[in-house]
Amino acid sequence: MRTYNNNHIHLRKCKKGSLSAVIAALFAASTLHAAEASKSVEKNKATAENPSPETQTLETVTVKAATEVRGKPIPVYAGGQVASGGRVGLLGNKSVMDTPYSITSYTQELIQNQQASTVADVVANDPSVRNINPRFGRFDQFTIRGFNLVNSEIAFNGLYGLVPTYTVPVESAERVEIFKGPNALLNGMSPSGAVGGSINIAPKRAEDKDITQFTASYATQSVLGGHLDVGRRFGNEGQFGVRVNAVHQDGKTVFGNDQDIERSLLSVALDYRGDKLRLSSDLYHYENRGTAPLERVALSGTAAVPSANRIDHNFAQKWSYADSIDSAVMFRGEYDITPLTTAYAAWGARRGRYDFLRVSPINVNTAGNFTATTNKFLRDEDTVSSEAGIRTAFTTGVVDHAVNLNASMYRIDFGNAETAVGSISSNIYDPLNQPQPNNPGVTERPTGKTQLESFAITDTLSVLDERVQLTLGARKQRVINISTTASGTRTEYDKDALTPTAALVIKPFEGVSIFGNYIEALAQTQSAPQNTVGNPVANPGAIFPPTKSKQIEAGVKVDMGTFTTTMSVFRIKRPNTFIDPTTLIYGLNGEQQNTGVELNVFGEPMTGVRVLGGFMLLDAELTKTRAGLNEGNTAVGVAKVNVNLGSEWDVSYVPGLTLTARAIYTGDQYVNEANTLEIPDWTRFDIGSRYVFKTHGKKVTLRANIENAFDKRYWSTASQFGLTFGTPRTAILSATLDF
Questions:
Q1: pLDDT per position as a tens digit, 31-47
Q2: Could you tell me the residue ranges of all domains in the chain?
């Protein structure tokens, strides 16, 4: 039995047909582009071998292959904003061109240059990802390919359950890796059953060169911060490494005088790089506290969508708060049994303690008036996560094999305590601060435990010097859930499922990869509700196996040496549950189908000019709904068009100066399944600059970024939980000194 009190933790006070045609046309065009790119590569090679008299001789550039160097991260791609590959679950680190899935790995250099503090800041570069919770709110939440993803779907060095539950810092991250699409076979079932993709945080490691760096920062209105980053290697061959990151920020945010944030991070990363043995350990402590966190706005049933242009104040109560503390430790090791066989294992644990006094605007009417229940909420989380496996390679005839065996386990024990302390009335256009309620005691709410266990095997068969690679595999997943309600009722769920994958990579030309995959996602299916008056159910209490969402994807990737283009088309089908109005049977009677095309570009197409971004066209169709009322409609909160495009320009006539710009566009989104209400499309522009120089032999980097430069007021996203207000114009300044 859990007990709670106010000292719980020590805290301070297009049309569907036309879209399908566009997708088909774009895919055909991408194949033609691949052939032209191959010709361009060959032409460039010929020019390099037989330069004309006018050709300028440039400094020799050594390009590293995008393959995994044991004990070191996969190399950075040209331009430094993304890596040449990333972690692909149990398959390990793979280059983009050898990966039969869609991945993007954002680098520490991008994180630092964009002055990102959380994962939400980093994913703003990706057209397939949208943040559906307000910045400086209680928590971050995202969509990938139109499906929700919460922070529990973010892995830390390959393991779920080890990052903070509500906001994930990135100052200690070497990479933020985004995998697009279902991935239950590769990573195991995600704790909350994400469908559209997953995110992995790769922690920093001590580099071969010593690092001693301090960054001082400022953000609108008065958020001041400091970040110390120190890395050293020891031993006669630099076998031992230590990397320490310490961060503190404090002050009033752009949302006004009532909103303060205070966040502190301390992380320590240790590693050992031997000839056959590699070990690492990561630990961190993170505290994130905020007053007056902005909440999503939920409309009343008959209200029109409020005008975001009229919102110029924070409509949260100044005495509301969201405080969280997370601590975690992780160990990972691998040993080369033979040159072709490696055994690995990892284990980690996290402790999370959360204390909220929250006020969520609900039933907002056309005039902006709303009522909100004030809730005192406490939550405990204790998680343990682990995996072990073997990777080996061998040859049978003309076929090379890369075989992976993997076992994983994730467990979370949690408890909630919540009580309502009255309600308040206010207006989102003209907020009224109500008196703060007495700090109440709390009543115990449900506790529970979820455990995920799985075993997986994959085999990547390759021929013709890896120009053709076929990956086959399957994972057996078991889901155990035990929950206890406030009244003491205990419910147990114990089901399993098998998830396969088949994926193909073909490299017809140098620098061109054509790929395709079939892969699934798993989510725990809710039990059938009890039979009650007015809500009859033919199968009350029925328990179902995990829900399977299925994806088919195909695409092409073109690497022109310093500039890469990837394009894919995909279709994801996710079943939904509801009570059939005719048979009264509760089950997997509904379905949503997301069909889309993605194009991503990254790299340095010309010296001193870098680009990063792309677009996603998405048709999120409700294909099966209750009584067929909304069939054919578009799912809530899914825009048909998302575009992100960022660029950097090194000003040649001012050495050390770089100018940056980024545009983000999101199409209109429906607020309800009936598609009778929608929020308009929006475009946000960000600009920035940085200047690098030396003084007294020390490198100094000055950065200045302005997000939402034209101070656009807009609803950024819609979801089943409400509308998200876009962040107003925010200036971020910093100075970094390398000692």
A1: 444 444 444 444 444 44
A2: 22-49+66-432+444-738
